[in-house]
Amino acid sequence: MRTLFPAASACFVVVFVASVGYAETKIEAKSDKIADAANAAETQRSTVHELSTAPSAHITYPDDRPEWIGRQPDLESSVHTWVVSTSGCESMEMCEAQLEALIPANVSLYIKETTGWVCDDDFLDADWIENQLVSKRYVGTLQQGDHELHEIAVELNFDADSRGRIRRAYQNSVVDDRLRATGGLFALALIGLCCTGSLLGVISRRYT
Q1: Predicted structure pTM score
Q2: How is the chain split into domains, by residue range?
Q3: Which of 40, 53, 186, 201 is the most buried (most CB within 10 A)?
């Protein structure tokens, strides 16, 4: 019995250390993803701000530029709105490439802001975003000094159905994370018990 308790204690220590390592790794991965999404959205906002206040070149917008492009995110109304706009680009292709990266980053940031969940990339389905979330789109130009630049802006709408889809996916993710963590700990505990049994067998044969 004197050898059983140290061996069992060692087993539980291994399981505990492994579980802590698993949790820390998952937290670090989620933190990195939050930072990436936040940086992408912040780059969009700061670039737009710089364009509107640049001291070296006056920015002139066309008269038909919609006022909704300048709105801040609305997370209080029955339908949440979130505007995504490109900076002034030399070509329309550059605008489209920039928007392609900005939209999923902003959807991810919206989900993080409203639920605290850092969603998987698989959840950010391009068809769902384009068909269900994008409600307005503007394609136009702006004048920066002597240069004509291109701009694209979209307004994302998160209605009750979209928010329900996000909420269900978040809840499923929480359950999956718990199941994976429990399964990992069970496997480690099983390995620890096998090692303990082998150790006890060696000790038993040694003192027999």
Answers
A1: 0.65
A2: 4-206
A3: 40
